[in-house]
Amino acid sequence: MNLESITNTVIEFIRAHQAYAPLLVGLMTFGESFAFISLILPMITILVAVGIALAAADVSFWQVWLGAATGAFLSAWLSYEIGRKVKKRAYGIWPLSRRPDLIEKGERFFLRFGPWAVFLGRFFGPTRAVLPLVAGIFLMPRVLFQAANMASASVWSFALLAPGTVLAHSLLW
């Protein structure tokens, strides 16, 4: 079995099951953005590769983008609500308890940039998972948090999937 036949098999599988693509990508972005899962299973590279594969299989970009943005939005919202509810006790929960440096960086970043930290933090690795939790702990107003959350989830998902789509289309056509 050569690389071309493996690629064709994967693309045909994706085409046959494309109705599940938005849900699966949404679950992946949820995990990538959730305070506790993201530190264990970083999926950013996989998500870029999935974007390429979905584009190669002619799966609708906008449906997958909506699934990705929804997953990212919901995970940050849940992290925020956990922060509001349990406050700094959340820092003692594994795997955050093993990363006090990350917590400290997240707090400094949040205190420096406020609502913009929620938006900007989505684009920087581990802070993506910590900043919504910190925003909840510091009682950022919900409306302000959700505005930054929705905007950042939308832009981040686009930035994550669009390059793969462009690359797949330029290689295949």
Describe the structure.
- This protein is 75% helix and 0% strand.
- It is elongated, with a radius of gyration of 17 Å.
- Helix 4 (61-86) crosses helix 7.
- By secondary structure, the chain is mainly alpha-helical.
Head-to-tail CA distance between termini: 24 Å
Helix-strand string: HHHHHHHH
Number of helices: 8
Amount of beta strand = under 5%
What spatial form do the alpha-carbon principal axes imply? elongated
Unreliable stretches covering 5 or more consecutive residues: none
Q: Compute the CA-based radius of gyration.
A: 17 Å
Q: What would you call the structural class?
A: mainly alpha
Mean pLDDT, to the nearest integer, reads 82
Largest sheet, described in full?
A: none
Helix content: over 70%
Number of strands: 0
Short characterization:
The chain is an all-alpha fold. The chain has 8 helices and no strands.
